[in-house]
Automatic annotation (TrEMBL):
GO terms for MF: NAD binding; UDP-glucose 6-dehydrogenase activity
Keyword Kinase: no
Residues annotated to bind NAD(+): D38, K43, T94, T129, E158, K266, R331
UniProt name for this protein: UDP-glucose 6-dehydrogenase
UniProt-listed Enzyme Commission number(s): 1.1.1.22
Lineage of the organism: Bacteria, Bacillati, Actinomycetota, Actinomycetes, Pseudonocardiales
Domain UDP-glucose/GDP-mannose dehydrogenase C-terminal: 317-414
Organism the protein comes from: Prauserella muralis
Domain of life, source organism: Bacteria
SMART domains per record: UDPG_MGDP_dh_C (SM00984)
Catalytic activity line of the entry: UDP-alpha-D-glucose + 2 NAD(+) + H2O = UDP-alpha-D-glucuronate + 2 NADH + 3 H(+)
Stored InterPro entries: 6-PGluconate_DH-like_C_sf, NAD(P)-bd_dom_sf, UDP-Glc/GDP-Man, UDP-Glc/GDP-Man_DH_C, UDP-Glc/GDP-Man_DH_C_sf, UDP-Glc/GDP-Man_DH_dimer, UDP-Glc/GDP-Man_DH_N, UDPglc_DH_bac
Pfam families assigned: UDPG_MGDP_dh, UDPG_MGDP_dh_C, UDPG_MGDP_dh_N
Keyword Oxidoreductase annotated: yes
Biochemical pathway: Nucleotide-sugar biosynthesis; UDP-alpha-D-glucuronate biosynthesis; UDP-alpha-D-glucuronate from UDP-alpha-D-glucose: step 1/1
Length: 440
């Protein structure tokens, strides 16, 4: 970590979701004076009272510290907040819109709201994931030569947002206004991270290029897992053998029920539309998206097979609903996608997730893991919560009507499940437990 000192700046963050709240609280922890703005008045009131309602380790503590120290505030009106800002970070949603492109309405609303209230020289920074050309378009909407637009995409992962923000592998900043990107990069100087300073279009494309690469890597792994099953190989051994190659790397090699979450699905879709807009047929990326649907469908077929071939009336217990462990976010969760198809085929579903409470359409949400096993024909692991490994599988077996366990995350110890008199099927694994070949 460099010993570089942060020069405190007045910063406004618009949008207090996973990205905005993390950005605001972390920039305040670096010594900046941060005002966070949101349209959701009830949320602003909760945050101003120190209440954080998303599951992100360390975030509530940082918010509390900023409020106590007095350099972090939450307000409802963006226009007043931005009047003396050196930089305004846009962290509003850019969901998948009609036709699959990113919906930029929230960004446009904020730009229209604050455009003429921004002080001269203030950098307007897009941290939201936005299509290439958005910085230029925002510049046109603003119509001001004295307000540079800067792209500063965010790479944090949910569940480790604070850790990722404060220990980034890189900071990417791009602008077409000379010096503006460097000024925004300076706000992060205390983190000592390498920075990539470039033009706006390149910075905007980095974000999609990175997320879509990760999605393609996962689709590739899921396809290799399918080959493993057909060829009698073991995905754990195959990915371990691949991962030792530093050019490939060990991360993002775990097969699963398909990739999901609030970013990869919408960002793959958006990049496909961006490619279309310049008449490039991005078949490689389209195949990764198709493979993700095929993986979900293979999981459904496996569950149907485990239920005896017919899902109508089958009782299926689901362990996990969040799109990955460590978060309570259900947006675009593969678990919910699997559940909705099972439900459409007439299965009765009971689900449990340690981070999810309350009813969801088409299923009963239980308040403990054992409830999902009661009378179940099949129990399916869909999210890799470590606590599922520690369940008493003999007790689960006694509660079940059938004896099948489908483990879409290869999370469980197969031997433990088999010892309980149940069958176990993982992904890309032989039906019986095989330990990965260890390479030292
Ligand atoms: N979630 C992630 O892990 C992640 C990581 C990197 C980048 N991103 C990108 O960051 C952006 C935000 O994502 P998120 O997950 O934090 O969203 P989110 O849905 O968690 O939060 C967005 C917040 O913006 C607020 N908002 C909406 N319109 C507003 C307006 N006009 N003025 C003020 N506030 C407004 C909402 O009330 C909400 O609190 C998206 O573009 C996303 O692609 C997300
Ligand atoms: O080996 C792996 C790793 C991940 N996943 C799945 O891939 C999806 C995405 O996981 P992850 O990338 O950890 O989730 P996000 O928090 O959505 O983070 C991604 O999306 C963010 C929003 O753009 C980016 O900032 C992050 O860099 C990028 O990793 C989830 O369904 C995971 O279960 C696997 O199946 N196997």
């Amino acid at each position: 970590m460099s010993a570089a000192r942060t020069v405190a700046a007045r910063i406004v963050v618009v949008g207090t979701g996973y990205v905005g709240l993390t950005t605001g609280a972390c920039l305040a922890s670096l010594g900046h004076h941060v005002t966070c703005v949101d349209v959701d008045a009830a949320k602003v009131a909760r945050l101003a009272a120190g209440r954080v309602d998303i599951m992100e380790p360390g975030l509530a503590e940082l918010v509390g510290r900023g409020l106590t120290k007095g350099n972090l505030a939450f307000v409802g009106g963006a226009r007043d907040a931005v009047r003396d800002a050196a930089a305004v970070f846009l962290c509003v949603p850019t969901p998948m819109g009609a036709g699959g492109a990113a919906d930029l309405r929230a960004v446009e609303v904020v730009v229209a709201e604050i455009g003429d209230a921004l002080p001269s020289g203030c950098a307007l920074v897009t941290k939201s994931t936005v299509p290439v050309g958005t910085a230029r378009r925002i510049g046109e909407l603003l119509g001001r030569d004295d307000v540079p637009v800067v792209s500063n995409p965010e790479f944090l992962r949910e569940g480790t947002a604070v850790e990722d923000f404060l220990g980034p592998e890189r900071i990417v900043v791009g602008s077409d206004t000379p010096g503006a990107a460097e000024r925004v990069a300076d706000l992060y100087r205390a983190l000592g991270a390498p920075s990539v300073v470039t033009d706006a279009a390149s910075a905007e494309l980095v974000k999609y290029a990175a997320n879509c690469f990760l999605a393609m890597k996962l689709s590739y792994v899921n396809a290799i897992a399918e080959l493993c099953e057909r060829l009698g190989a073991d995905i754990d051994a195959v990915t371990e053998g691949m991962g030792h190659d530093r050019r490939i790397g060990r991360s993002f090699l775990k097969p699963g029920p398909g990739w999901g979450g609030s970013c990869l699905p919408k960002d793959t879709s958006a990049l496909l539309r961006i490619a279309e807009s310049v008449r490039y047929d991005f078949g490689l990326l389209a195949a990764a998206v198709d493979e993700n649907i095929a993986q979900r469908d293979r999981i459904i077929a496996r569950i149907a097979g485990a239920a005896g071939g017919d899902l109508a009336g089958a009782r299926i217990g689901l362990l996990g609903l969040a799109f990955k462990a460590g978060t309570d976010d259900l947006r675009d969760s593969p678990a919910l996608s699997v559940a909705s198809v099972l439900c459409a085929h007439g299965a009765e579903i009971t689900a449990y997730d340690p981070a999810v409470a309350g009813d969801l359409p088409g299923m009963t949400v239980a308040d403990n893991a054992y409830r999902v096993a009661k009378g179940a024909d099949v129990v399916v692991v869909l999210t890799e919560w470590p606590e599922f490994r520690r369940l008493d599988w003999h007790y689960l077996a006694a509660l079940m009507r059938g004896d099948a366990v489908v483990d879409t995350r290869n999370l469980l110890e197969p031997g433990v499940v088999l010892d309980a008199g149940l069958s176990w099927q993982g992904i890309g694994r032989p039906r019986r437990a095989v330990s990965a070949t260890s390479v030292s």
